[in-house]
Amino acid sequence: MDQDTLLNLLSASADGDKQAFADLYQSTSGQLFAVSLKMLGRRELAEEVLQEAYVKIWHNATEYQHGKGSVLTWMISIVRYRALDMLRYQKVRKEDPLEDGQEAIFEEHINDDGPQVHKNKLDQCMGELEPQQKQAIHLAYYNGLSHHEVVGHLDLPLGTIKSWIRRGLQQLQRCLSL
Amino acid sequence: MNYRDPQLKDALAAEYVLGTLRGQARRRFQKLMMQIPSLRESTWLWEQHLHGMNQLLTPITPDERVWQQISMSLGFVDNVAQAPLPETSNVVPMATRNRLWKGLASMASAAAIVMAVLVVNNQPVPVATSQQVAVVQSAQSKALWLIEVTSNTIEVRSTSNLKPLANKDYELWMVAKGVENPISLGLLPKSGKLTLVKNSQFDDMDIVALAVSLEPLNGSPNGLPTEVLYTAELAIL
């Protein structure tokens, strides 16, 4: 679903068009649920976050502006921040902690038919990171792990993890801005 | 700390979006974003950068109840049973089969009005050949299919109100008095017009209603409706 279609649905939703909002939900909920489920790891919590996020999207539809990124990016942000809140306040953790072979599970969820040009640039820039930097950023991003939790997974000192992530992000930004 | 320092600003925004900025620092950052526009802009930029990673995730369909809960939270409907499923946006499945048959008697004054308009406005159609008509309506009383029964055929036209699912088909059934199960009349068009051959039993039966079901592609796998979506009353002309 392209940006123009989503924008039309979102702006109609902002005007109170319930059908447009239902269509918006249908077009995006699979993607947003994947984000939420990946972070929370438990279906019922991921659904709760998804539900709250869409209620917020309906109420805040008028606040979307192009400067905030694509409609999908904006919606993903709402889901992610809600999921981070959930992780933080409820202290929920995945029932199956990530283990060796986690990368294999991760690969299964990768869909290389992603439509975005931006995605290719991001792939390329992520590919230029040191493997450990990339892994730390992936753990933090996809799984909503804190610095301390990333330490637990990679078994390296906190200071090292922090600086990997910080430097990885700096390098990512330089690469993406080129 | 000077939050207007571009490097610090970027670093904080990046870790905020990544999710590694936690606790007090996170709350302070959220407050500062409200005050400092450039901090907000850095954050939006990082959202655009990083959220591309999510587009690599394969979509996973959430349970239907998520949409039902959203509809209820937003006051679109009063209870779960009324919440239309978004994937069949103009469709409200009957909650139970039982309710379907019970509901038949009280149906369709709105449909009758639509039919009257249809017949009046449709002069080029030779009325004499149409013996019966029906309008299949959505829960919002929008006409989805117009059905005309002639001596040998059933002519079906879909309307622009119909938003069909690509991976499903819609099947038409007749429900006859004294016959336990509905009898299939064929698949409905997802766009445009279709002529179905009239079932030979059609004229001999006392048809209480027509029903439309949601089916896998190519129709019901077992000869019975999978999920009844709507019913319509036949009117004799």
From TrEMBL, chain A:
Gene3D superfamilies: 1.10.1740.10, Winged helix-like DNA-binding domain superfamily/Winged helix DNA-binding domain. InterPro entries: RNA_pol_sigma-70-like, RNA_pol_sigma-70_dom, RNA_pol_sigma70_r2, RNA_pol_sigma70_r4_t2, RNA_pol_sigma_r2, RNA_pol_sigma_r3/r4-like, WH-like_DNA-bd_sf. Residues 24-91 form the RNA polymerase sigma-70 region domain. The keyword Transcription applies. One of its GO terms (molecular function) is sigma factor activity. Transmembrane segments: none annotated. Keywords: Sigma factor, Transcription, Transcription regulation. It comes from the Bacteria. Residues 120-172 form the RNA polymerase sigma factor 70 region 4 type domain. SUPFAM superfamilies: Sigma2 domain of RNA polymerase sigma factors, Sigma3 and sigma4 domains of RNA polymerase sigma factors. One of its GO terms (biological process) is DNA-templated transcription initiation. The keyword Transcription regulation applies. NCBIfam families: sigma70-ECF. Belongs to the sigma-70 factor family. ECF subfamily. This is RNA polymerase subunit sigma-70.
TrEMBL record, chain B:
GO terms for molecular function: sigma factor antagonist activity. Residues 108-226 form the Anti-sigma K factor RskA C-terminal domain. This is Anti-sigma K factor RskA C-terminal domain-containing protein. Pfam families: RskA_C. It comes from Shewanella frigidimarina. The lineage of its organism: Bacteria, Pseudomonadati, Pseudomonadota, Gammaproteobacteria, Alteromonadales. Coiled coil: none annotated. One of its GO terms (cellular component) is plasma membrane. It comes from the Bacteria. One of its GO terms (biological process) is regulation of translation.
